[in-house]
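Posting for a labmate who doesn't have an account.
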Amino acid sequence: MAVKSLIETVTVGAGGVTSIVFSNIAQEAGSDLLVVCSTRSNAASVVSNIRLYVNGETGGTYPIVYITGNGSSVTAGLSDYSFAGRMNGANSTAGTFTNTEAFIYNYTTTGVLTMGINSAAENNATEGLLYMGVQGENTGGPVTSIRVQTSDSDTIQHHSTVSLYLIKYD
């Protein structure tokens, strides 16, 4: 049986932040991590990208297979950047936040890390954006820190929350 334990939750205050960082993540062999986001950015668009970096990375290209839908069409593909879904932007309906989950499998391993990602952006209009992906990333070692940020120089807005959970198995 899996047991989910909260490690930390960050709630963004007034003025927003450029990133949210979880550091000094304890190592629990045979366990997984779950990053849960309820976010909104100040990007001058309906949605912007949300990025997830591990172990102090500042960028890079990592293969990701994805499928995304917008209410009227579906797209699938292969991309090569650190991507964890969508985030509502300033041009989306006021007060709406994107929900994103990134499941990081066996985070204490060295070598290639695998992440499963689900993201849903709501605009209270004719369009809703859904995103699902699987990403491989060579971290060079166990995950000890995670940074969540927007894809550009935008900020994560007030009232956004990001939580980190440990998933342990009996």
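Reply:
Got it, the structure tokens are right above this. The chain has a mean pLDDT of 86.
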